[in-house]
Amino acid sequence: MSKTKIAIVGGGVAGTTAALYLGQLGLDITLFEKKDSISSGPPYCHLHAGGNLYREISDEQCVTLLRQSIDFVKFYPFIVDYRPTVIVLPKNDKSTPYALLPRLKLLQKEYQDLIKKDEKNAVLGKSEEYYKLYNKEDIKSLLQKNVVNKPSNNDEWMLTAIKHIDLENVQFPLVLVQEYGMNLFRFGAGAQLALEQMESISFYNKTTVKHIEEDNEQWKLTYTKNNEILKEEFDYLINASGFRTGSIDDMLGVKSQKIVEFKASYISQWEQKSDIIFPEIIFHGERGTPQGMAQFTPYPGGYFQLHGMTNDITLYEDGLVSTTNTSAQPRLKNHFIQKLDDGWKKEDVNQRTDNAIKHVTQFIPDFANATVGAFPLFGAQQIPGDDPTLRVAEVSFPKERYARCEIVKVSSSLEMVDAIVRKLIKLGYINDACNESRNIGYLTYIDENALNKEAKNLALSRGYPGDLANINIPRPI
Question: Which band of pLDDT confidence, cut at 50, 70 and 90, is reported for residue 56?
């Protein structure tokens, strides 16, 4: 077994995936995380298996997101909520639903081809059911039926949506697509359980890396843990510190260009509908305007996670910052850092959540009865380069034994580690047989009861309702 020592700074999805992936190759991994537990960074709730939330990105990015999402589901099957997404265009939108059709057809064909290559890629259901259009006559016919508490086919999912949407305010057809949900608490819990099984991985939580220097082909890390200053040497360094990757670059004297954006989503509870399982519903709109996209993401217990791509909800007028000539680390303003490090003021939580509820209510009128369910899920997102619409990125290698993780969407993390593995092979740390070796033994045999308990405890420990750690529709057997 190789004694190569690898330091991974940051225990989000990128760092944790790198640790699990490389740990099963026999490398000696130390994972450093500033917070109490892993995956405490920006929230994620949607499996972008095609990128249909982002009309502004290229077809190429959408195809990549589809492929990467399929790989991510295969690696982390326990985090997926197997409910579809309904996409709606309001009447005041500048585009039409038919403008989405060429991309949907392209993605369906790509999905079909991926299944032909490997039947294990069929994680989104049958390729012919990847999407379905519902015109006005289809909707009228469906409305004659009764909503079922637990939908089991496309029509039942769409019926639940249209029984609550103001249909006078939308364009037809409506679209149903197999983009599922992802549960961040189940990810954190399952990954933690897997890490505990792996003797090759040391996980240091509540640990802050203070200084890094390169000396004689070794990385010397100085860090604080339990109020003690410690030092350790490593052969390879992986910077997976999320929006703070620039701070590591600064320690190493490495130049980089990136954007950091603060974002938040809001937790509401609609108690009157706690016995109904909804699909996710997306109401398209122009980002940064009062008509920005509304995202309505269901959880058990009548909880809904809300995004509104307006400056009064998810976005902030001063929430997007770039690197400078003097630092690779974009500098968020103090009020964002205060939220990230110390939490939110109650009045800010109430105001922004109320704004999110009102934004959704224009499309789902009865949602006016919803209330604040918890404080927001929030964080800062790193985007490499200078294009804020970029959604596909993996990793870069500024130095011979240094990898900087640059994922924007969590599903990119496996291709990220594949690229790191190829670098480690070139350096002679591992052999060629390790290329694209995605051994998931530590993940597939996680006990479901232990996972449920750990996920609930994780949510509660962070101050969120335990229901947010649950999924509506479990993995098909």
Answer: very high
Of all helices (H) and strands (E), which one includes residue 246?
Answer: helix 245-252
Q: State yes or no: pLDDT of 303 exceeds 80.
A: yes
Beta bridge partners of 307: 295
- Strand order through the sheet with 236-239: 201-204, 28-32, 5-9, 236-239, 402-405, 395-399
Q: Give the per-residue pLDDT at 477.
A: 67
User: DSSP characters for 119-135?
Assistant: GGG-TTS-GGGSEEEE-
Using the 3D structure, point to which of 384, 401, 436 is the last residue of a domain.
Answer: 384
- Side-chain half-sphere CA neighbours of 436 within 13 A: 2
Number of H helices, E strands in the chain: 12, 21
Cα–Cα distance measured from residue 188 to residue 184, given in angstroms and rounded to the nearest whole number: 6
pLDDT tens-digit readout, 397-406: 999 999 999 9
DSSP 79: G
Domain of residue 144 covers: 59-181+258-384
Does any domain span residue 49? no
Q: In terms of domains, do 160 and 194 share one?
A: no
Which three-class secondary structure string do you get for 288-342? CCCCCCEEEEECHHHEEEEEECCCCCCCCCCCEEECCCCCCCCCCCHHHHHHHHH
Specify burial of residue 149 (Cβ count, 10 A radius: 0-12, 13-18, 19+). exposed
Count of alpha carbons within 13 angstroms of residue 434, beta-carbon side: 24
Q: Are residues 267 and 137 in the same domain?
A: yes
What does the pLDDT average to over 440-460? 89
DSSP state at residue 430: S
pTM of the model: 0.96
What is the DSSP secondary-structure string of 24-51? TTT-EEEEE-SSSSS--SS---B--SS-
- On whether both 163 and 264 belong to a single domain, the answer is yes
Number of domains in the chain: 2
Reported confidence tier of residue 317, pLDDT bands at 50, 70, 90: very high
Q: CATH number, domain at 229?
A: 3.50.50.60
For position 134, which CATH number holds?
3.30.9.10
Classify residue 452: in a domain, yes or no.
yes
440, pLDDT greater than 80 = no
Regarding beta strands 395-399 and 402-405, do their DSSP bridges make them parallel or antiparallel, or are they unpaired?
antiparallel
